[in-house]
Design a protein that fits this description.
The structure is a single chain. By secondary structure, the protein is of the alpha+beta class. The protein contains 3 helices and 4 strands. It has a 4-stranded antiparallel sheet with strand order 2-3-1-4. The longest helix is centred in the N-terminal third of the chain and has 13 residues. It is globular and about 45 Å long. The termini are far apart.
Amino acid sequence: MAQSYVQVTTTTDSRPEAAELAKSAVAERLAACAQLVGPVASTYWWEGEIESAEEWLVVFKTTADRFDELASLITDGHSYDTPEIIATPVVAGSMDYLAWLAEQTEPAEPDDAVDEPED
């Protein structure tokens, strides 16, 4: 079966949280790329009321096979009780880009670990 690709989106209430989710997902090879967009104005229902908020959108590029692990990472690292986690299928794309995306989301070998800077 051919590889399937998805774009996964979430929103956060701060740029630092969005950046941390993006960095964690890429470091864990759960996404090949994560883009931050914002701030964006969001209007939504929450607990019976219409709310408005300024949020940051994070767009992750990954394979469908990595979605469940990425969704868990987002949920675990998110400050919202019910974070947006939506996967949209990629129906077409540059073959070179999609090959790169698949390569970058292969689970890392133990010696491929990202070195974290020391404090």
